[in-house]
Amino acid sequence: MTNSYFSRREFACSLAAGLGSLAAASAAAQDRNESTSIASEIEEAPSRRVIRNSSSFRSKQWHPYFSSLRNGAILVDIDSRSLNYWSEDESVFLLYPTSVPISPELTKLGRTSVVRKVEGPSWRPTPSMLERNPDWPVYIPPGPENPLGTHALYLSWQFYRIHGTHDTRKIGRKSSDGCIGLYNEHIAELFSHAKVGTQVLLI
Q1: Fewer CB near the terminus (10 Å): N or C of the chain?
Q2: Is 166 a known active-site residue?
Q3: Residue 161 buriedness (CB in 10 A; 0-12 / 13-18 / 19+)
Q4: Helix, strand or coil for residue 75?
């Protein structure tokens, strides 16, 4: 009886120890797999800065649209309401959601370039804007009421700009009178990279 009792007890203890070891090994393997997965994501992540928006639009390659990246390049996709930026040496790539013109009549497509950069821009409505909206002020100084937000990139096309906005509801929508709008934090970052002479293409 005594030998049988200890045999059963020893068997039970051995079984429990074995099951514990299996569980520990399984947990360790899972931890290793998760660590490997995280490490792979880190290793596979590009070194350049990428900003993606909540609409899950995809970034584009620059080669179909520009012959080179001399002075950097900005591609605005009206359909997906997104802006891609590449630095000249491709070390920086930025992708932002944008606002776009409210109608095809106000949408201008084609090639232009950045001709001026202004931090804290003032704003004057165009003659056509005042014609459509005679109650609008003829001038708004820099500040929280300014529709150009905190920064503006002026294009070679008269009256067309890539700029910020204090009204974040406009981003991702057809909401502008022709310009391309970005969140203020995004235009500030783009402003720090883009320079006078940066190529711009609206498609």
Answers
A1: N
A2: no
A3: buried
A4: strand
Q: What pLDDT, in 10s, does the model give residues 11-56?
A: 444 444 444 443 444 444 443 333 332 222 222 333 334 433 444 5
The answer to which of 4-18, 51-65, 158-172, 182-196 has the lowest mean pLDDT is 4-18
Q: Which position has the token pair 């080179």?
A: 68
For every residue of 100-156, DSSP letters joined together read EESSGGG---EEEEEEEEEES--B---HHHHHH-TTS-S-B-SSTT-TTTTEEEEES
What type of residue sits at position 90? Answer: E
Which pLDDT value is given to residue 19? 41
Q: 174-176 and 100-101 as β-strands: parallel, antiparallel, unpaired? A: parallel
Catalytically annotated residue among 151, 179, 186, 193:
179
179 is catalytic: yes
